[in-house]
Design a protein that fits this description.
Blueprint lengths: L1 H27 L22 H35 L15 H30 L7 E2 L10 E2 L5 E7 L4 E5 L4 E5 L4 H4 L16 E4 L4 E7 L6 E5 L4 E5 L5 E5 L5 E7 L11 E7 L1 H14 L2 H5 L6
Parallel strand pairs: 3-7, 6-12
Antiparallel strand pairs: 1-2, 3-4, 4-5, 7-10, 8-9, 8-11, 11-12
Main location: membrane
Protein name: Cytochrome c oxidase subunit 2
Catalytic activity: 4 Fe(II)-[cytochrome c] + O2 + 8 H(+)(in) = 4 Fe(III)-[cytochrome c] + 2 H2O + 4 H(+)(out)
Length: about 300
């Protein structure tokens, strides 16, 4: 019976591994085009290019990884001690005690303290993400144990992202310019460059300037459903709720294309709502906006940008 259970479990593990193979194959398709995207065999977080993501990486590496490593090692040591000292051969007569008050107090208090240690710095990270810079407030950056030491300029570009069914609409609020961004069609996918992410690339990327604070206003169609705007390399994830305007921000310090996805289950095409943000130089951004204002056409404006 035990043998049968073992083989059934091994069969379930094998089935799970086979189910993961398409995802691994998809990851292998992603190459050097763009910067912020998953990598084959990736274990760590995506490359950070913003102060917000710097603080998230520091929180992950400096607190979470050490905490979970300590917990795993403690559990492992306790399991070994129990197997060696309290097996049937070493204890032919079973113990008759029912509880231990001291141990119960310890395993209640210690997890509470661990959660407090995790929670306190996480509040600062979350506050940074949700507080748009005004040019005076300082941010945590890579040192989450500071009270704020990273200076971030006030936002000079405002973009509204609206989740539709199932694509994104972007508006440069100050200029009154808007366009839709969809996942690539089958015909466009056939023309992808080698290594370009098939399920993350979009037809129209959101273009923003490098080293510039961008205020992101996030909402959803009034007659639609809830979405979430998320770009891992920027460290942002904000719900897009119909009838509500949420805000976050980012300041990307390196040019390139950064990818994200809708991160809230939103219906049949939830998996096909990628986000593409192209960070360009300030001069390229200004030329793009000028052409967009003149032509009122995204494709015409995008033609001013250098080829990928």
């Amino acid at each position: 019976m035990v043998t049968g259970q073992f083989f059934r479990k091994m069969g379930a593990v094998s089935a799970a591994a086979l189910a993961l193979m398409p995802a691994l194959a998809s990851a292998q398709e992603i190459g050097a085009v763009g910067r912020g995207h998953p990598e084959p065999g990736q274990f760590h977080l995506q490359e950070s290019v913003t102060p917000i993501m710097d603080s998230i990486v520091a929180f992950h590496d400096g607190i979470l990884m050490w905490t979970i490593t300590g917990i795993v090692l403690l559990v492992l040591v306790l399991l070994v001690i129990i197997m060696v000292r309290f097996n049937a051969k070493a204890n032919p007569v079973p113990a008759r005690f029912t509880h231990n008050t001291l141990i119960e107090v310890i395993w209640t208090v210690v997890p509470i303290l661990i959660l407090v240690v995790i929670a306190i710095p996480s509040f600062g990270v979350l506050s940074d993400q949700m507080t748009v810079p005004d040019g005076e407030r300082k941010y945590l950056g890579a040192n989450i144990f500071s009270l704020g030491e990273v200076e971030v300029p006030a936002a000079t570009v405002t973009v509204k992202a609206s989740g539709e069914q199932w694509y994104w609409n972007y508006e440069y609020v100050d200029q009154g310019l808007a366009f839709d961004s969809n996942i690539l069609s089958e015909a466009e996918i056939a023309e992808l460059k080698p290594g370009q992410p098939r399920l993350l690339a979009v037809n129209n990327e959101l273009v923003v300037p490098v080293n510039t604070t961008v205020r992101m206003q996030v909402t959803a169609s009034p007659t639609g459903v809830i979405h979430a705007f998320a770009v891992p390399s920027f460290g942002i994830k904000v719900d897009a709720v119909p009838g509500r305007l949420n805000e976050t921000w980012f300041n990307a310090r390196e040019t390139g294309i950064y990818y994200g996805q809708c991160s809230e289950l939103c219906g049949k095409d939830h998996a096909y709502m990628p986000i593409g943000v192209r960070v360009v130089t300030v001069e390229e951004y200004e030329a793009f906006i000028a052409a967009f204002e003149e032509s009122r056409d995204y494709a015409t404006a995008a033609a001013t940008l250098p080829a990928l």
